[in-house]
Amino acid sequence: MASPQSLPDTQKAIRWHPPSYDIRVEDVPVPRVQHPDDAIIKVKLGALCGSDLHIYRGHGGVSQAHTCGHEFIGEVVALGENFRSNAQGRPALYSSLSVGDKVVSPFTVNCGECHVCRLGYTGRCPDGYLFGSPALEGGQAQYVRVPRAGGTLFNLSNPSTWSSALPNDVKQKALSNISDSSLLLLADILPTGVFAALQAINHPKVAPVITGKPWPLCFSKDVVPGNEVNFTDSDRMLTIAIIGLGPVGVCATVSMLDVLATRDIPFQIVAIDPIESRREKMKAVYDTIDAAGKGSGKFSVLSIDEAKVRVEEWTNGVGATAVLEVVGNTSALNLGYELVRAFGVIVSVGVHGAPPLPVTGRQLYNKNVSLDFGRCPARAMFPMAFDLLVKRQDVFGKVGEPASLIDRIVDFSQAAESYRAFDKGEVGKVIFDPWN
Amino acid sequence: MASPQSLPDTQKAIRWHPPSYDIRVEDVPVPRVQHPDDAIIKVKLGALCGSDLHIYRGHGGVSQAHTCGHEFIGEVVALGENFRSNAQGRPALYSSLSVGDKVVSPFTVNCGECHVCRLGYTGRCPDGYLFGSPALEGGQAQYVRVPRAGGTLFNLSNPSTWSSALPNDVKQKALSNISDSSLLLLADILPTGVFAALQAINHPKVAPVITGKPWPLCFSKDVVPGNEVNFTDSDRMLTIAIIGLGPVGVCATVSMLDVLATRDIPFQIVAIDPIESRREKMKAVYDTIDAAGKGSGKFSVLSIDEAKVRVEEWTNGVGATAVLEVVGNTSALNLGYELVRAFGVIVSVGVHGAPPLPVTGRQLYNKNVSLDFGRCPARAMFPMAFDLLVKRQDVFGKVGEPASLIDRIVDFSQAAESYRAFDKGEVGKVIFDPWN
Hints:
seven-stranded mixed beta sheet, homodimer, alpha/beta, 16 strands, six-stranded parallel beta sheet
């Protein structure tokens, strides 16, 4: 274990000020260990995420100035006293994390040892403070304090402390080859995209199409003789609409393509955004993916009106089997309701605001719609997201190219301008380097 | 095949008149075959269902007088010309159904040969007219016309045309022993109850508790080493809240108990209704069920306020894993939201009205709630519901006892009074015998 580095007293941080649109780079104290479970991370890169815009615009119900950012990657520089060689009965990192280790954090804290965390629902740990909120200073800074760090962090220097479907040597080699900006996608947007795809694919209402057995036999391992149904090719066709092609929407699309290609599920996907530059990005990403990663299904990137016509044509008016709503507002939900079939599912991973839902109980009853809302349990999704990150370095490994999710890496002097341009849709995902 | 019986010209029928609360027994024409796929059924029994009350109260948006009722059992008295010995490529009943056969119908028509029906989503067949609506005369009559009858009906005289998990001899013997009033429960309320339970049990957000593997490993057949989590007994405990103990709510509860007992899943169930007589009925039903049918979990029947406290106590404030909302109004949905845990699921099988949903997108996001709405695909659920009907004759085989779902069988002269008393909660489920 390396010796704790001596920390400076002050640091630079990107901070939001109320009521809205006010981003400043300020000198603030460097955080110290406050609790024996804390880790202090020296941030290498901190990213700007679409959900930062809720607070930026003053829509977050927040009135307290704070350091922004819930996506960061960095190096451990100090650990609380609960990190020791034999922290038995606690998450593995309490015994193995060392000063000097490279870590990535999910966007929320999770203790890793409560009932909710054990179930894998790490996004709703009762200790689950969101980084970059009044409750917890964020990672768009030179240093950040991570509470419950043995449950929260992933140790990228010691991949034996977590596992994936990849062999250890592949995992180790991948880690040494993948850039920090690429690994930073594991903090939020990549697991959130995988989460959206996973919920749709595993929803019971999608099961008949995937299993080729009608509801409710799709849940039974045994075929009950006399109830066989001869499915046609079109019955087995999964029609997916993905609404919103910001960075998370692109991740959800790439993840969905990968699942469908890997499992050889026939599909047709329409990826939808009203903004042309986002559609162009999605097309460039799709063109980049190799044949094994995108399978042989149909794939269209369309505006809203075009998409309505396309889903109608593809499904003879039946509608999409599943909709991924990756925006988080009522018009996107409304579009989802319009596109989804009876007995279809709408998965919504966007951060929704306070307006009432745009559909009534009667409408949901009349179409037998299922809705799955909520925040990604990023810590639990990490291994699956990591595997996709390794597979899809053609997409996730690049910066500033037409097919890359990350538009640019800038220094803190460009913070306010980057927020402004990102809010206006003039730039894609921006990453801050706090040390340049 | 028996010869078609000669049908009378007129019959007695229970009819609703606008705007509300106006039930009359009237002489109306006996229906005739209008389409080659039609069957005419001589009704033996027709039942009154909670969802009939929407139209009765004038809440259904209906302005046209019509014959009521979507639950009926009877005998085939006429068939369209598409019923013939070799109707190849069509649902089996077109080749095998005969005049004289005893049949039960699901509450909606389903063709059995479209994409939606093949998937098992028979409740949303594009031809899926609801019996007892302006679109299709109902079964509270002496005769009823069943469109798409080869796809819609179940032939209880010839159980080889459908299948269940039961051996054929058990099935045949059961059919000869089960009363018509008991079989009539297959038209709607029993499959709807089974549907509610099935959706909850198979929802992906319930999977960690059932599989004992955390999200998202619960979807993987292989355990990925390094991600094992030691679940405690309380992590494996499924907490279910069932809101609404009308006949469908009781069926949902009996079905849920049966699934949990059969699969040996540890559980605690709270069954909730504000009306004491319904709670007493639920308790009597529970006491009737044998040990194999109710397993060894905790089971409480409580009022709303008691239930809130109980779920809090049972789960240390985490909330119910799944909620079955078997009412169909906003206060029931609100209670569901309050009781459900983060990453929980609310299954709603009630017929909802036009009011906006009582929860916002922000609330659903903040709790990662899943909602599954809609009408039961009763035709598809029939085999599973039949098996439960056979198993639970201790509950479903009785009339007029404290533990029976069916309160009384009456003649048509008591139609208006029965609607009134059922609407006021003064009687339980009522069945009409049109021939007494």
